[in-house]
Design a protein that fits this description.
Order of helices and strands: EEEHEHEHEHEHEH
Strand order of the largest sheet: 5-4-1-6-7-8
Largest sheet: 6 strands, parallel
CATH superfamily: HAD superfamily/HAD-like
CATH class: Alpha Beta
Number of helices: 6
Radius of gyration: 14 Å
Helix content: 25-40%
């Protein structure tokens, strides 16, 4: 049974586009639909955590995660699978209780270990291939456009 959902940030919770103003300040776009989905997961007793390897936009990502009431982990000096494994140990969980949603090569190792691998239609081919091979779920919605909420509702409805 799934009890924890790990999410990548850029390309999953965001569109993956980095915007900068004239002063060099970075902006990202997040979806309120995904926030609603995350609330549904939390209310359903699931743990939701973000693991990002973005070395530049971490403050934005962390602020958004704080707004949603979920933990944010940076995987810049360690791979995402190392960070995820550490979190599972801390939470007393096993890989069989994990759903992972990612879209790029930095997510591959966690997607390979998760019970339910999930991605978006605009993910890199290697990710989509792994998700399909493992009978995971490819959302209809794009990252940053409600894909997280769609995935969460799928996981809750399938009662993994």
């Amino acid at each position: 049974m799934i009890s924890i959902i790990f999410l990548d940030c850029d390309g999953i919770l965001t569109t993956g586009t980095y915007l900068y103003d004239d002063s060099g300040k970075q902006y990202k776009e997040f979806s309120s639909v995904d926030s609603n989905g995350i609330n549904e997961a939390l209310e359903g007793g699931l743990t939701v955590e973000v693991i990002s390897s973005d070395p530049t936009g971490g403050d934005i990502n962390e602020a958004r995660c704080n707004d949603m009431g979920i933990p944010y982990h940076r995987a810049v000096e360690q791979s995402k699978d190392v960070v995820a494994s550490r979190r599972l140990e801390e939470l007393g969980e096993k890989w069989g209780s994990v759903a992972m949603m990612g879209d790029d090569v930095t997510d591959l190792e966690v997607l390979k270990q998760a019970q339910v691998p999930v991605t978006v239609p605009n993910a890199v081919e290697e990710v989509k291939q792994i998700v399909r091979e493992r009978d995971g779920y490819v959302t209809n919605r794009q990252g940053g456009r409600g894909a997280v909420a769609e995935a969460i509702r799928y996981i809750l409805s399938e009662q993994y």
